[in-house]
């Protein structure tokens, strides 16, 4: 049997693994494929090193973990590469511009103007169904900055202050498809400067999405509790929207920001031959941003799946909403 090499992502982390040796031969070996699936369930994320940097390889590696799912919004750019192997690949490409009015999505943070910043979140929080996982690569990255952070909800639950945890556990958080950083309510530690050029079109689609509910804490089949509150796109607590509950969500969000700099999180510095998969039902992720003068491109595939705990406020299902958008 062809083999791969597996190691811990870091000695001080309770999650994550690093895998070397992925190529077309190892991907064809069902024993290796099952090893990867088992490793992923156990560790929550895998960093694949020295992988062929192509859409074809990204899709093939993604399908080891399940069928692919396209992004639910039409304004999200897709990869230009044609053919079946480009299925489901979305393109998040920042190109520098001297004209801030072109809508590059800039923020000021710690006295610096940065681009491609994303606060802590989980993907598709605005849907009733969550995707199982995402696979990401970065063909173009800034020479400084641009790291992607991954925070393990299991470790986050273990490290979270009990007084705050007791107040938020058992509650559902309300999310909307409003990605504007200028309207973000909780855990804001930056100053928004410009919105993305696609924001008006996205808001038109967002108006068709009901608000979505997801638990702040949930329990996996394997028994671990997962802290799974993403401050970005959160707007309140279900059934108790009030200044008091907003203060609670803000306090929890700022604690997530703080723990994101410790051993609840891993910050990945990209190489073009890296690919990373993370469990979207377990992990939060963020992007630290980079100097606006640098180009940055990431390509993502999305893997279908759900945990069955989310729902829309008005009882609609995601298929109905997506048909309305289409």
Task: Give me the secondary-structure topology.
Layout: E1 5-8, E2 17-20, H1 24-27, H2 30-43, E3 45-49, H3 55-62, E4 90-94, E5 106-109, E6 112-121, E7 133-140, E8 148-152, H4 153-159, H5 162-168, E9 172-175, E10 191-192, H6 199-206, E11 212-215, E12 217-219, E13 225-227, E14 234-237, H7 243-259, E15 265-268, E16 275-279, E17 283-291, E18 296-303, E19 311-312, H8 318-325
Parallel strand pairs: 2-3
Antiparallel strand pairs: 1-2, 3-16, 4-18, 5-6, 5-10, 6-17, 7-16, 7-18, 8-15, 8-17, 9-11, 9-14, 11-19, 12-13
GO molecular function, one term: dioxygenase activity
Organism: Novosphingobium album (ex Hu et al. 2023)
InterPro entries: TauD-like_sf, TauD/TfdA-like, TfdA_dioxygenase
Features of the shown structure:
22% helix; globular; 326 residues; alpha+beta; 29% strand; seven-stranded mixed β-sheet; Double-stranded beta-helix; 19 strands
